[in-house]
Design a protein that fits this description.
Blueprint (H helix, E strand, L loop, with lengths): L10 H12 L3 H8 L3 H8 L8 H11 L3 H12 L36 H12 L8 E5 L6 H12 L7 E5 L10 H11 L11 H13 L4 E7 L2 H4 L10 E6 L10 E4 L5 H12 L1 H6 L1 H10 L4 H13 L5 H8 L2 H7 L1 E2 L2 E2 H10 L3 H10 L6 E2 L1 H8 L3 H13 L4 E2 L6 E2 L2 H14 L2 H23 L22 H11 L1 H14 L2 H17 L6 H15 L2 H17 L4 H17 L3 H17 L3 H16 L4 H20 L3 H17 L6 H21 L3 H17 L3 H17 L3 H17 L5 H15 L1
Parallel strand pairs: 1-4, 1-5, 2-3, 3-4
Antiparallel strand pairs: 6-7, 8-10, 9-10
Helix pairs in contact: 2-3, 2-4, 3-9, 4-5, 8-9, 11-13, 11-14, 13-15, 18-19, 18-20, 18-21, 19-20, 19-22, 22-24, 22-25, 24-25, 25-26, 26-27, 27-28, 27-29, 28-29, 29-30, 29-31, 30-31, 31-32, 31-33, 32-33, 33-34, 34-35, 35-36, 36-37
């Protein structure tokens, strides 16, 4: 097609005439050329007089212009473009790259890890859809190295973007972030648009930018974005550009983007980063100190880089010295600074962006015990309604200051950020107010923990009362257990607080309520602390009966949970003395039994057997329901001790008698409790049969016992039972089943730090070696 318009140099009028001559609308031409209607309208009206050559070529192709007419159109466009000092118009796509101020910062030669994140960006480049140019949002908590990663990725991907790579700091953490109008002016200038040609209106600037970006392969790094409204005008609409955005906010409202959330480095990656900064020789000489540094820096890239830079600047200083300095929590943030790199300053930037309630909540989350915090705990510590706490917790997650659990409604502070928040609490919160918050939270937590634990009390046949918020209280055993496990650190801290301030009745009630629940979770070593506090509280209240009871619980915990028979024997002997002094036959019998358990672990078997016979006689003379349960427990312990002493035939007699007690039933006892006692007795029977080489008879009771422990979710019990079953299956020459049972036992025992894990590993190794 030819053109009837003269070469006047007026690009807008020329373009308009050519379009009218072709008989097509603005919308049709814009669509065919890959530019926006607004950009095309600006061109025809003369508001944008110097489009780049690729835009002109796209318009000429869409209009079907012949070569002379297309050349004339390009000539008129060139007259509106800015000229360099030597005269010709800058053409980034056909000649040397444009000179501008948005060049990429330098890449770090020691950049480490982030391989999967970079692979995701490479995949975006490889599968770019021109109709939907990809936008990758790099997000995560302060100090993860989001900008460093974005710059590293831009350098790595630069060959795919021959039309240039632009880096623009949007100043998201500044008091006045860059307005989108200002950012667009810089981007347009970098693309060769003369200052006088830049539209004033935000939408016009955005439209012009999109029209220019549509015809180029550009890589844009929009660094440190503050929010979605700042970013939306800066994103290409079509074409082959890749935009990488970094932000301390997760920018959850930004549509159709690819999110790349950076995480903490793995330990080996953290060590590798330190090695690259400090040098292989120093790290090899202090390998353990390097690993300690990685852990003390919380595997946070910023902290690791600061530690590395400090060491690099002091080549004669040992890594162990810095590790020792960082090991002091009160000085850790002071130590983590090198020049203008400071962990505290990085956190402070994000903290200053928060509103007052969110700042308060962050400070109070630092007062919570354990690694994470629930909305209930956060609300109690901050003294705000639960609903408000939930909203602010989510905001803190969006800003990268908290990490939300993947499945539960719980939130975690990074170790270093927790130190920073605690500092702010000390600096900004009145000590009396802070102490009041801790006391309020402790009272509430301990009351709920006590009520939740009572769901497992075998002697209770009604729903426990006393929860501080009945509307949200756990309903039933499953919910109660889930809450007690999730909030373990918090209610243990509450128990310690109550003991410290002298609320002994509350402490004693909580410890007593935990007794039955502790049977289900005997892999928790913290039970020694619970029952020691209970013992101290009973003694402070002057109640000998309760003191003897708590001492017996403590003896059990030292034996079963802490595996400390010396401490167990000491507690049992103290319980025996107190129980006899106050004339309590039940606690006297229990004390004899717990003392026997400790003596057995100490290898003093004859003494243990003698005590167990005395304990059984004591309970046999006690007609109460509690006495029957105690007798059954003692018979099982007596039989086990006899079996280990080479008297399996006598052990079998005691356990068969115990099974008769189970079969007869115990009046007033909950079915689940009787099922547990029945399973324990079956486990002992199976082991008796195994000791007598009656392997066929041993399998069924052991399997039934293991099934019951599994159903009750008692890993501290099911692991040993599965180990014993594996041994029996091996003797029966059912090697495949034996290996499955032993491998599962090893997994359970290792996971819960059970002392039998070494035996399970040895059994599995022996089986594999024999099979080979």
């Amino acid at each position: 097609m030819g053109g009837a318009v003269s070469d006047t140099g007026d690009f807008g009028r020329r373009l308009h005439a050519l379009r009218v001559d072709a008989g097509i609308s603005q919308e049709e031409l814009a669509h065919a050329a890959g530019v926006s209607v607004r950009a095309l309208s600006n061109l025809e009206r003369g508001r944008s007089r110097g489009p780049q050559r690729r835009t002109v070529q796209a318009l000429a192709a869409a209009l079907g212009l012949d070569a002379p007419t297309a050349t004339a159109l390009e000539r008129s466009a060139s007259l509106g473009r800015p000229r360099t000092s030597s005269g010709p118009t800058a053409e980034p796509s056909d000649g040397p790259a444009l000179r501008h101020t948005l060049t990429l910062p330098r890449d770090l030669h020691d950049f480490t890890a982030r391989g999967p994140a970079l692979a995701r960006l490479r995949a975006l480049v490889a599968h770019t859809d021109p109709a939907h140019p990809p936008v990758a949002v790099i997000c995560g908590q302060p100090g993860l190295g989001k900008t460093a990663f974005a710059v590293h990725a831009a350098h790595a991907l630069a060959p795919h973007f021959p039309d240039g790579q632009l880096h623009l700091d949007l100043r998201g953490m500044a008091a006045q972030p860059a307005p989108p109008q200002e950012a667009l002016a810089k981007l347009l200038a970098a693309l060769g648009v003369a200052e006088q040609m830049v539209p004033r209106d935000l939408e016009d600037r955005a439209g012009l930018f999109r029209s220019l970006a549509a015809t180029r392969r550009l890589l844009l790094v929009l660094d440190n974005a503050v929010d979605e409204s700042q970013l939306r005008p800066l994103l290409p609409g079509t074409g082959a550009c890749l935009t990488i955005v970094t932000s301390r906010s997760s920018l959850t409202a930004l549509e159709a983007v690819h999110r790349v959330e950076l995480s903490l480095l793995r330990r080996e990656e953290a060590v590798e980063l330190l090695t690259r900064i400090v040098g292989v020789e120093r790290v090899s000489h202090e390998a353990q100190a390097t690993r300690d540094l990685a852990d003390l820096c919380g595997r946070l890239p910023l902290a690791l880089r600061i530690a590395g830079q400090r060491l690099a600047a002091r080549p004669h200083e040992s890594l162990g010295k810095l590790a020792a300095q960082l090991d002091r929590e009160e000085r850790r943030l002071d130590t983590l600074q090198a020049g203008d790199l400071r962990v505290r300053a990085a956190f402070a930037l994000s903290y200053q962006q928060l509103d007052t309630p969110s700042r308060l909540l962050l400070r109070r989350c630092a007062l919570a015990a354990g690694q994470d915090v629930s909305p209930e705990t956060a609300a109690l510590l901050a003294g705000i309604p639960l609903r408000d706490a939930g909203l602010h917790l989510e905001e803190l997650c969006d800003r990268g200051l908290l990490q939300a659990d993947a499945t539960a409604e719980r939130y975690r502070l990074h170790d270093l950020l927790k130190l920073f928040a605690a500092e702010r609490s000390t600096a900004e919160d009145d000590p009396a107010t802070r102490d009041e918050a801790l006391d309020r939270t402790a009272r509430w937590m301990l009351d709920r923990a006590t009520t939740a634990a009572l769901h497992f009390d075998a002697e209770r046949h009604s729903t426990p009362a006393g929860d501080p918020d009945p509307a949200t209280a756990p309903a039933g055993r499953d919910q109660a257990r889930a809450w007690l496990e999730a909030e373990r650190d918090q209610w243990l801290a509450a128990l310690h607080h109550a003991h410290t301030v002298g609320r002994y009745r509350q402490v004693l009630d909580a410890a007593e309520a935990m007794h039955w629940f502790s049977d289900l979770t005997q892999h928790w070593q913290q039970w020694t602390t619970v029952f020691q506090h209970g013992t101290d509280a009973a003694r402070a209240l002057g109640s000998q009966h309760e003191e003897a009871t708590q001492l017996n619980y403590l003896a059990w915990a030292q034996n079963r949970c802490a595996h400390n028979p010396y401490a167990a024997l000491e507690a049992a002997d103290a319980a025996l003395a107190v129980a006899r002094a106050c004339g309590d036959p039940l606690q006297t019998g229990w004390a004899l039994g717990y003392g026997a358990g400790a003596l057995r672990r100490l290898g003093r078997t004859d003494e243990a057997i003698a005590r167990l016979h005395s304990a059984a006689a004591c309970h046999r003379d006690n007609p109460s329901t509690s006495g029957r349960l105690a007798e059954l427990t003692t018979l099982n312990a007596l039989g086990e001790t006899l079996r280990e002493h080479g008297r399996a035939d006598q052990a079998l007699e005691h356990h068969l008698y115990g099974l008769e007690i189970c079969d007869q039933g115990i009046s007033g006892q909950a079915p689940h409790l009787l099922a547990l006692f029945h399973a324990v007795t079956l486990q002992h029977l199976g082991n008796d049969y195994a000791a007598l080489d009656r392997w066929q008879e041993a399998e069924t009771p052991l399997r039934k016992a293991w099934d019951t422990f599994e159903e009750m979710d008692m890993p501290g019990w099911s692991g040993p039972a599965q180990l014993e079953l594996g041994r029996v299956l091996r003797q029966l020459d059912r090697l495949g089943e034996a290996r499955t049972a032993l491998a599962a036992a090893l997994h359970t025992l290792t996971k819960h730090h059970h002392p039998l894990q070494s035996e399970a590993a040895a059994e599995l190794h022996a089986l594999d070696r024999a099979h080979d």
